Amino acid sequence: MSIKVDDKIGTVRRAIPVRDARALFLRFMPGIVLVVLVLAVALANPLFLRPNSLLTAADSAAPLLVLAAGAMLVILCGSIDLSVAALASMCSVFVALWVPALGGWAVLAAVLVGATAGLIQGAVHVVAQIPSFIVTLGGLAVWSGIGLVASSAATVGVEGDSLEWAFTRIGDARIPSAALIAAGVAVLIAAVFWFTPVRRWFEAVGSAEPAAVLAGVPAAQIKLAAFTVSGACAGLAGGLLVARTYSGAPGLADSLLLPVVAAIVVGGTAITGGYGGIGRTVIGVLIITVLRVGLSVAGVDPSIEQIIYGVLVIGAVSLTIDRSKFQVMK
Amino acid sequence: MSVPVLNVVDLKKRYAETTALGGVTFEVRPHEVVGLIGENGAGKSTLLKSLVGLVQPDSGRIELRGNAVKLRSVAHAGSAGIGMVFQEQSLIPNVTVAENILLGAEGGAVRGGIYRWRELARRAQVQLDKIGCLVDPMAITDTLSFAQRQLVEIAKVLAIEERTHAEPVVLLDEPTSVLDSDEIEILFAQIERLRTHASVVFVSHRLDEVMKVADRVYVLRNGQTVGEFVPGQTDEAELQRMMIGRDAQGSHYHEDAQVDVSAKPVRLRVSGVSLKGVCDAVSFDVRRGEVVGLAGVQGSGREELSRALFGAETLSSGHISIEGEVKRFRSPRAAIAAGFGFVPAERRREGMVATMTIAENVTLPHITTVCNGPFLDRPRERRIVNDWVQKLRVKAPSIAASIATLSGGNQQKAVLARWMVSGDLRVLILDHPTRGLDVGAKSEVYKLIRTLSATDVAIVLLADSLEETIAMSHRVIVMKDGKVSAEIPAPVSSKPSPLEILERMI
């Protein structure tokens, strides 16, 4: 029945304290969870707090952070990008194929390919007005398929040291270069968000697109930018993965999709858009990484990881979702 | 006198800072048609929603045949004997009329989970016969006209009778709003027939209709019943005053602050603007500092036109010009760059971004005024926003507070402030700027409009009521079926009467 219950005049007065409490909870919860997790893992195995294990953990978190940083932008402006992992897999194949000709520049080429793929998805979503969920779900299959065709469905090995820069340790502190690259991506996004009005545009589009458009926010361009950056990040993540496995392969990054979404929502970015940020995403990625380390320290079967991610995504979304955006939950 | 079928006593409902119902009392006697009349925002829809269990009142009583009831849902209200014919119809379009009429009350028409179509049709026909409706119960609902569907809704509500074994109370919510005049006559005839089976509450904001159809009429204003009368025994001017209230005089609208603009040059010229299927070759001028009211019923095209002026809809022909310069806006962004501002009717959905702060909302359209190149200048933003918040007397703990925490009136002031920060506002389009605001906040918005008018901003106003249109405007452009049907001057000394404008609207 099309009975519309008028919600224009909500019960604002009563809702504010609850909302504030919820907002506070959401703001600090991810940080608290991270600290608790680190302490728990350290209790189980004190060796975890040694610099070497921490750096190894940071190294392993790098591809996840790069993917999550890009995908977060798409979610922040109210859409979703389910194709990031498949796109990273496809790009890993291209990097491996192109290294003989381009050397280390193959990664840059993959970033450009990823950006183009993201732009195409964004354009289909914005221009043809197709839900991003569908566009990127279709994209997921398309990029996987292209990766399979380009690699003849086989792992493509990489010879030589032209990708060494993306998987090495730097200086006496032995900082992993991949972690520095990922941190660079996060810092770049954070700087753009802090120093320019871009963050407000993302939030306005994600939170109330009609209002954003009537306030002159270039909503279509914002969304295109989000998808393009997300694609570029997927390309970079593909490059990082090739560097550490000395090979590119269709399906190489596929298992990262759920951890990416889990990291974004566990960090506190609302899946409905309009609320979130890069700092939260970094914390989310750290939570997922420590969780993964912790599970292996505790001797949990890796097959159970997927179950935990699945439950985590649903649980985190149930806390952060803005239900007032939906008249009916589909 | 017989016991009233429905007796409502001192019903109250508050939403945060606004009182939707501040004490409504009325009664409906058996086989009576009672009219409820009031302006937009008088509390009619909240009242109806409380009577069918969609809204829970804070205090007061609803009595049915002498028994106090608490209504929890539409279904519950139905089994208690109250049914509503919704303004936006509630029928399911892709199933048969009979299924709609008996939805949830199929009884013997379903056996073992399977429809017995013949029985279903027979039972539906019983309801349709009550109002002499000739619609085939086996017709698919969305093949019917709007008027026919409305009759089906009435028949559906009458099915309550069989369930409760008593005659129901039928609430008709603005039933004439989308009907043409022939259909309205038919509806009125149906209401006469309906009263032999039920008691009827007829809700409308149109005085003439209520006078025609009701036995007794209650007037609602600001959430309260302010009077009761019998049609034919009260004069229309008296009723108008009852509906609008005594405070709706010149001072409420700051009419003494209406400036003379007859010598000012034209700022906005709308030349032969057409929107596909909505309006056709609309032309008018707005002078510097002039407030032009756009009047028209729903479907007159004034809402779409106002959005099109702001670049939010595409013109199919015609153009607009500012100070003689032709403009073709392809987006609101382009209109904003040319000095346009727009206050949309749905503030919470379109007017503001509820998750952002007051400052972020105020500077959103003109972000460059608080930027150095591509970089935000936060101290400058704080200074400018604080300045406007004080000038407009926005009551807020801080400009860093979420705009959602403000009252409706203060939110609207913040929304208006966003168009002033650039210092180069030339044309302001106001779509129902006082909707949902209480009386005091309305008056402040009116004052702000006068101030903007005095600083040469050309203003296009789509007001909430005719009274507001007349009081606030220098000139009223009346629209009917997508065309300008009249242009009526409204200087302070000789404001037109609502009737003069109404005649040209319908």
UniProtKB/TrEMBL annotation, chain A:
Membrane topology annotation: Multi-pass membrane protein
GO terms for cellular component: plasma membrane
Residue intervals passing through the bilayer: 24-48, 54-75, 82-99, 105-127, 134-155, 175-195, 224-244, 256-275, 282-300, 306-322
Protein origin, superkingdom: Bacteria
Pfam family for this entry, one: BPD_transp_2
Keyword set, alphabetical order: Cell inner membrane, Cell membrane, Membrane, Transmembrane, Transmembrane helix, Transport
Alphabetical list of CDD domains matching this protein: TM_PBP1_transp_AraH_like
Cellular location(s): Cell membrane
Membrane is among the record's keywords: yes
InterPro entries on file: ABC_transp_permease (IPR001851)
GO MF terms held by the record: transmembrane transporter activity
Protein's recorded name: ABC transporter permease
Automatic annotation (TrEMBL), chain B:
Pfam families: ABC_tran (PF00005)
Residue span, ABC transporter domain: 6-247, 261-506
InterPro entries: AAA+_ATPase (IPR003593), ABC_carbohydrate_import_ATPase (IPR050107), ABC_transporter-like_ATP-bd (IPR003439), ABC_transporter-like_CS (IPR017871), P-loop_NTPase (IPR027417)
SUPFAM superfamilies in the cross-refs: P-loop containing nucleoside triphosphate hydrolases
A molecular-function term among this protein's GO annotations: ATP binding
Signal peptide segment: none
Keywords for the protein's UniProt record, in alphabetical order: ATP-binding, Nucleotide-binding, Repeat, Transport
PROSITE patterns in the record: ABC_TRANSPORTER_1, ABC_TRANSPORTER_2
Protein name in UniProt: Sugar ABC transporter ATP-binding protein
Annotated organism of origin: Cryobacterium adonitolivorans
